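Sample entry was shown:
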Amino acid sequence: MKDIINGVTRISRREFIRTTGIAGGGLILAANFSACSKDQELAGGDFTPNVYVNLLESGEVEIVCHRSEMGQGVRTSLVQVIADEMEADWNRVKLLQAIGDAKYGNQNTDGSTSIRMQFDLLRNAGAVTRQMLVSAAADVWGVPASECTGRNHAVHHQASGKSLGYGELAGHAATMPVPEQVNFKSPADYRYIGKPMDLIDGLAFTVGTAAYGIDTVLPDMLYASIERCPVVGGTLVSVDDSAARTVAGVVDVIQLGNGTSPPDFNPLGGVAVLASNTWSAEKGRKALQIKWDPGANASYNSASYRKELEAAVTAAGTQVLARGDVDAALGSSAKTLEATYYAPLLSQAPMEPPAATAMINADGSCVVWACTQDPQTAQTVVAATLGIEPAQVTVNVTLLGGAFGRKSKPDFIAEAALLAKKSGKPVKVTWTREDDIRHGYFHSVSCQHLKGGIDADGNTTAWLQRTAFPSIMSTFGPADGPSASELSLGCTDNPYAIANMKIESCKATAHVRIGWLRSVSNVYHAFAASSFADELAHLAGRDPKEYLLELIGPDRHVIPADSGAEYENYGQDLSEHPIDTARLKAVLEEAADMANWGRTMPQGRGLGIAVHRSFLGYVATAAEVSVNDAGKLKIEELWTAIDAGTVVNPDRVRSQMEGAGIFGMSLTLHGEITAEGGAIVQGNFDNYPVIRMSEAPRAINVRIMPSDAKPGGVGEPGVPPVAPAICNAIFAATGKRVRELPLRNVSLV
């Protein structure tokens, strides 16, 4: 098999079965978006297929999905693209979930990458399949392929009126060469791409037959509940498990040792109670008598740490972007403004907490079932935990009941595997809500200090920004402040056309496990930058929306490297996905138009607006709020405009924006994780609440901008503008500036 062209190749039925474990037949194609060399080979080469298309001789099409479904609709959208270019009958397409394995290439469902990084691959796979079927039909009929057309699951020869179904052609098509030239459909001819399509999993979600990580049940399975040290880095001193062992249903109590330093994705250690049912495991856990040595992080307290961050950003940091002379410009400004913004630690808190089931086979190999965003990392971590090779670990990916970044960390999966090995039986580990909120990988706390200057005409002449937050990199090794990657998320990609700009990074030490949450650093960077832009507009006596347009400046492509910044652009080339100010301004204008920006507002009501580019998607959000005589806030309505480039399923984009609005409002109103004595205070939705129905706006209005640009991200870009839009609206309604989150801490909720 040497005909790898445009990232697509044929494979044999035997190779398909060996690689996927799925029975195949007819025409089988494997595709990889990064593989373009004709000379690459599947066996022993660099070619690792992401997607398989299996056309059976029955005419049924099986597509192996290598991404995780967590409610975002990825399993539907991936199939849409392939089926459209293939000209397949939607009702004859079946999706199969891939296990976690390097043979599928990158399976990590993070960073809004599934469509933006795989769109061309998926089109290639579908178009190549169609063209090979067309070639097969032309060969059968003895006519030029140019006279034949693939349409609605069959190949047609218009001149003769002949047609052959895809299933009839599958075997013969498998003998055809992979075409050198891929002929894509015109967007005008799309049947599925760009069209609202029902979720493939929609019925299962609705009637309750969908299988999540928490639903896995195996014969003779034990249920585990784990007591962990409340402080990261703490160690076990002693445990008395005698009372726990007397609880009915408890089978065993197993010590898991201590966590690693740095924590990485490894288990935190602790003491596990194994029982025949969940209730007994939880009851036994509560009966444990444990003494911990909390270690060095016992001194960590949120209130004092906030003061450390505030002190850090009020002093000079490490320069990460610079143009012009900020100090001189500030010195000559007609007016200057300084502000410090604070955002706390956050928990992802998905509705389904982390859950995994593991089984050890007689040969020492391991099989797991887990709600994971990143099955390959799970495979690697489980293998290292058990001391076996990754090839000996099979990771079955279930549906995910939400994730938001938490389930890309496989610590909970490794716990299940380790307990299965130690107990000799299959074990399910289910984190409680309290476990998840107190022991997870937290979205970082941050402080940002901004100083700006305006001239006599109100034009911004200088922008100084300092940012400090514990880095995600601290989870994997020594790190005393933000990484270049994290600064790329809404900070060093600042789009404002300000002649004098300087951005500095300041030191911050981590005392908990830091991980990513939906939109990552963009959340607090957008809150600070978009709030400060609104403050400058007020200082200049200008309309905030018009002032934002002036700050963004002329249509251009922003190149952070021109100002000395190290910029990653979400893993994609700036030439293909530029920072395009025209698109940024367009969504800003659209959101303002949707909200009827500029209308006279009653007393106690205000409109606010913010715009932000993240994960290659452009989003603007306008918010209308009211604040009553008692000072209580009500978010009345949201308007969001998104430019995500080419859109596969507009229903999914709309639902993601609506979900981002709710998610962003939860963080804005309530989201806060605090620590005392190194231990997390919050534990459930009573003290880490999400937004309730009574707090939701009357409408979240979404408009998708038409675009033929390459697909951008969707799942994450909707979150960052929400908080600043709301806070700017509060100022418009009350004259009160909000520079810290959540709003309940400033007596507005």
